[in-house]
Specification:
The complex is a heterotrimer of chains A (341), B (230) and C (514). With 341 residues, chain A is α/β, with parallel strands linked by helices. Chain A has 12 helices and 12 strands. Helix content of chain B is 37%, strand content 24%. Classes of the chains: A alpha/beta (341), B alpha/beta (230), C mainly alpha (514).
């Protein structure tokens, strides 16, 4: 239990009063006080900056050397980050955006500046003139290995089984969209048939990952769409080895999370330095056990103990940003039609 | 003098005219068949029913456009004369000070008014704790406090028993004397009119007749009154 | 009778402000739009949205009748506690509540365990019936509470008269209760219909697939993934049109109820005995089980994590409390202003202004405000004020619906007396309106505060990154796999929401009794 409540209350109250109630009225008068130290504004999804996210460590690490202040601005998730950036247009304060994935980058590209290439250790060749990958993961169906002993080895086996799965909606969540791309990348024009066959396995479609994963943990479904790294959290943080990811023969689609420099930034040098720091050993190490993803640039120390127990897909699937962009609308429609029957 | 100058009340099929005066200090009963418009006329005088045409004057001053509370009148309704969530003292106090910030004197006046109507020491009670007669008394006590020159009564004692009603009428008379008030009282009971009012207005067939002496009216009742009395 | 001019300027100004806020936010989106086109799937979303909302409101309102009636005429130990607890589902954050419902009705829940023990096939919660069930879970309490207010508004004197005339139960129902129901039902049905219209997390989570897509989801998708502002605005306008249509229809159907005033005598009514007593007991028990079990499940899940609450919890809680209190205050003042004006002079425009926010998508409202303001106010400083404003706007309809019937009653019963005493507006407010309306005001403010604790999804787009509100913290915890802490934080959230609600409701109750 945390007994220092009054202190928290007082400090937070002061912050609230200062930042919001007064500031809302006085608008923008006050910001000049900090003018001597440059501020790097980083737009990201909000779980990145939470106490359990990589944000605090990365902010502290970068501020040690940059002589600047990192200011996080957040939106709900990757998609919301992009929406926010588009809403603000050229007026945005953001210098760097962290947390788009490759299904979104084609849309976002015009708003970003070209950057220097950085080395990466992704399982597929990856190069983008505007975006630096900072972590990645394989999508996978996670199950409870104490209840399910012979998991399906492909979408076709899954569809033929009586197993119940819960998935995320591609219209409202990035994993949901990732699954759509996975089926598309693996099966191409056969995708609608796969979806039609899967229809009776799908218990429900949730708005986001949280709801789906929560329902799986509560026993509503035998499997949930998540990442191959999900079991690592349970194993490392909870000492619970009962969760596993099913290995599919057709390969696993990648989610690659990227960061980029906003074209309208007034801190281009700092932005470049931040992107370089993001792929450094220190930041990459922090990301592994906060985002529970693979590092985009493997640190010297390698992966923490426990990761060796995870499945290693033999084949990695990833559509290019342009393919993902052009496939998205028709794929969503296919999916909707197949599941609405 | 209270003057109704060519008053016309109209609402859907209802229609009533009145064009007469009563002298200051008079006790006037309004009598007539139900639905004839006795209450509507009283409500028009009090300011709750805007006449289609005509003027209402008190001592020569036009009050037709004044808000109900600004008129020099006090009205007692058939019911809902007291706020049930307020104590008697608060109910009475609102008659003196809308913000209920009563001076020492005003508080004493409230106590006195309560005592005058036989409710001494009951200021802290709420209406629900009182009998019907006591509620009427409390409402009268507020009329006494407000001391407006005209007291309008819209059958406030209709629900009381005969003996109790007689007590109330005597109390009204006393209150009116103390405040030097003119009283207009709607009633359906000829006995009330006889006992209390020196003048009576017959409201029937779309017309509120000019007031005539009560005794005379009942001695030679016109056709409309005869029909009503049966 | 009171055909004197009524001061309506504040209400008019407020109505215009609300219309400007809601239509203006959609207009902002349209202005920025590049194309104004609907997708073919949007029409099936519209159909499903209306279907689930209609079914949910019908079922909730129908079930509320026996429940409210039983609660009104029975006196038992814990009755007042129960009527207060009735609000609990309504103030529960949707994500938390859905997990609670699943824990009870889901695959591994006790309902299916019981079915299996009886050798019966399992029941799936997913599908239209699941959506309706969840909506009923949320809205049955609201409908019941609104009806209970209706029953309480029938003065005890009338019931006593009915008893004195030895009216049989059926006649009492016809002469006293049926008119009240006819007066209340259109408002209740409309309110719940409109609430269900804009709910998207329930439909999406329990709907079982893209068949169960609602308009709100389509808006969400259009705004976030497709960045199709034009489509989002068009969808929002369809929701407004639907809301306006339903509100106008309800206004036509609504009947005024005129019981006259009683004297606030809280004499317990003689309840009918015979077979009706066990029936009432059964109704109340069933409702307690249906509403209580998911709640208990949520509490049970949250308890283990209470010993190691996550850091930042109390700061988030404080932020949420400030948001909730300010939102509730704004919403209450606005609702009272509109309800008072409508009670004195019924006008469709007031109803429309008060009900319009129900159809407003929090996301469209938030986005519209963001577009309006972001050039002038740094987004980071906008988050909390915008959230408060949006919360207040979105909760206004609930308050309005709760206050209006009783505001009408107060006007019918005490407006003439107030006027004859010449009470100025401030005194009338202080000595007549506030005390007479304290019960619905307290309840309504409690609902508004609790709903605002739940954030209503507004903050997602414009959070400032400097500290989360409590619902956001819960999301973060789940997102970081910390289910146990998330459950504990949810429990704190529920506790605070309910505490706020309880406090306001008590304040209202105290005043009413005083």
């Amino acid at each position: 239990m945390d007994f220092s409540i009054p202190d928290h209350f007082r400090r937070t109250m002061e912050r609230l009063m200062k930042r919001h109630l007064l500031a809302a009225g006085l608008l923008t008068i006050a910001t000049s006080a900090l003018a001597e130290t440059p501020v790097l504004t980083v737009l990201t999804y909000d779980s990145f900056t939470s106490e359990w996210g990589p944000g605090p460590a990365i902010k502290a690490g970068f501020e040690e050397t940059c002589g600047c202040t990192v200011n996080f601005v957040t939106a709900g998730d990757g998609a919301a980050v992009l929406a926010r950036l588009k809403l603000e247009g050229a007026t945005t304060d953001a210098d760097v955006v962290v947390g788009l994935d490759t299904n979104l980058t084609a849309d976002a590209a015009p708003l970003f500046a070209p950057i220097a290439a950085t080395p990466n250790t992704l399982p597929v060749p990856f190069a983008d003139a505007r975006f630096v990958p900072f972590d990645w993961g394989w999508f996978a169906f996670v199950y409870d290995n104490t209840k399910l002993t012979t998991p399906p080895k492909s979408f076709e086996e899954l569809a033929a089984s009586n197993l119940k799965i819960v998935i995320e909606d591609p219209r409202s969540s990035t994993p949901g969209l990732g699954l759509l791309m996975w089926v598309k990348a693996a099966y191409g024009s056969r995708a609608p048939q796969i979806w039609a066959d899967l229809a009776d396995n799908i218990v429900t479609v949730t708005p986001g990952w949280s709801e789906a994963y929560g329902m799986f943990l509560q026993g509503e479904a035998d499997m949930v769409l998540s990442y191959t790294t999900s079991p690592a959290y349970h194993l490392i943080a909870e000492k619970d080895a009962s969760k596993s990811a099913a290995l599919f023969d057709e390969g696993h689609y990648l989610q690659v999370e990227v960061a980029g420099k906003v074209a309208s930034t007034d801190q281009p040098a700092l932005a470049d330095a931040f992107l370089t720091y993001l792929t450094s050993d220190a930041a990459q190490t922090a990301l592994i056990t906060t985002n529970w993803m693979y590092p985009a640039n493997m640190p010297a120390a390698g992966l923490p103990a426990g990761f060796e127990t995870l499945i290693q897909p033999g084949k990695s699937l990833l559509l290019t940003a342009d393919e993902a962009q052009s496939l998205r609308a028709p794929a969503i429609e296919e999916w909707q039609t197949a599941l609405s029957k | 003098m209270l003057t109704l100058e060519k008053i016309v009340l109209r609402q859907e099929s209802f229609h009533l005219t009145a064009d007469w005066s009563v002298n200051r200090g008079a006790r006037v009963a309004l009598i007539g068949p139900s639905g004839a418009g006795k209450s509507s006329l009283l409500n028009a005088i009090a300011g709750f029913f805007a006449p289609a045409s005509g003027r209402i004057l008190w001592q020569g001053a036009d009050v037709t456009q004044m808000a109900p509370g600004a008129r020099p009148f006090t009205i007692l309704f058939q019911d809902q004369n007291l706020f049930p969530h307020l104590t008697l003292a608060q109910n009475l106090g609102l008659g003196l000070s809308p913000r209920l910030q009563l001076s020492q004197d005003q508080r004493a006046a409230v106590e006195q008014a309560l005592a005058r109507v036989g409710l001494a020491g009951m200021g802290a009670q709420k209406p629900a704790q009182l009998s019907g007669g006591q509620q009427s008394r409390a409402a009268l006590a507020r009329a006494l406090l407000r001391a407006r020159p005209v007291l309008l009564l819209d059958e406030p004692f209709a629900a009381l028993g005969p003996a109790l009603k007689i007590d109330m009428l005597d109390l009204v008379d006393e209150v009116a004397r103390l405040t030097d008030a003119t009283v207009l009282m709607v009633t359906h009971d000829p006995a009330d009119a006889r006992r209390f009012a020196d003048k009576t207005v017959l409201v029937a067939d779309g017309v509120a007749q000019a007031p005539v002496a009560t005794a005379e009216l009942f001695a030679n009742p016109p056709a409309a009154l005869q029909a009503y009395l049966g | 009778m009171a055909n004197r001019p009524v001061e309506i300027r504040p209400a008019l100004g407020l109505a215009l402000f609300i219309a400007a806020l809601i239509l203006g936010s959609a207009a902002m989106l349209l202005l920025r739009a590049e194309s104004w086109r609907l997708a073919p799937a949007d029409w099936s979303a519209l159909r499903f949205t209306v279907l689930q909302a209609a079914l949910s409101s019908l079922v909730s309102a129908t079930l509320a009748i026996p429940l409210a009636r039983a609660l009104h005429r029975r006196r038992f130990r814990g009755r007042s506690l129960l009527t207060r607890l009735l609000a609990a589902p309504f103030v529960l954050p949707v994500v938390v509540a859905v997990l609670g419902i699943l824990a009870v009705f889901g695959r591994s829940g006790p309902v299916n365990a019981a079915l299996a023990a009886l050798g019966l096939p399992p029941l799936s919660i997913f599908g239209l019936h699941g959506v309706v069930l969840a909506n009923v879970f949320f809205n049955l309490p609201l409908a019941t509470r609104m009806l209970l207010h209706g029953w309480q508004a029938i003065p005890a004197e009338r019931f006593r008269l009915a008893a004195a005339l030895s009216m049989p139960q059926s006649a009492q129902f016809r002469h006293l209760e049926l008119p009240m129901l006819r007066a209340q039902m259109p408002g209740i049905l409309t309110t719940i219909f409109l609430i269900c219209l804009a709910s998207f997390a329930i439909a999406l989570t329990l709907g079982g697939g893209p068949k169960a897509s609602t308009l709100e989801l389509a808006i969400y998708q259009a705004l976030r993934f497709d960045f199709d502002l034009g489509r989002a605005a068009l969808l929002a306008l369809i929701q407004f049109a639907l809301c306006a249509g339903v509100t106008i229809a309800a206004a036509r159907l609504s009947l005024r109820q005129g019981f006259g005033a009683g004297l606030d005598r809280a004499a317990p009514l003689p309840a009918p005995d015979g077979w009706r007593a066990p029936l009432d007991a059964a109704v109340i028990t069933a409702a307690v089980l249906f509403l209580g079990a998911p709640l208990l499940a949520v509490i049970a899940q949250g308890l283990p994590g209470l010993t190691h609450l996550p850091p930042g919890l109390w700061q988030a809680a404080l932020r949420s409390l400030v948001v909730a209190l300010v939102s509730a205050l704004l919403a209450t003042v606005a609702a009272l202003t509109l309800a008072q004006a409508a009670a004195r002079r019924p006008a469709l425009w007031i109803d429309l202004a008060a009900m319009l926010p129900l159809s407003a998508s929090g996301l469209v409202l938030g986005t519209g405000l963001f577009l309006m303001l972001h050039r002038f106010v740094p987004p980071a400083q906008m988050a909390l004020p915008v959230t408060m404003l949006v919360n207040a706007t979105l909760t206004l309809p609930y308050l309005y619906r709760l206050i209006l019937p009783e505001a009408r009653q107060v006007v019918a019963d005490y407006d003439r007396l107030t006027q004859s005493l010449g009470l100025p507006a401030v005194s009338a407010l202080r000595f007549v309106i506030l005390p007479r309306l304290s019960r619905p005001l307290g309840y309504g403010a409690g609902i508004a505060a609790a709903l605002s604790m739940g954030d209503l999804g507004v903050i997602a787009l414009i959070a400032d990154g400097n500290g989360a509100t409590l619902p956001l913290l819960v999301q973060h915890l789940i997102g970081a796999y910390r289910m146990e802490q998330a459950a504990a934080a949810s429990l704190v959230l529920i506790g605070l929401s309910f505490g706020l609600f309880w406090m306001f409701d008590r304040i209202g109750g105290w005043n009413a009794d005083a």
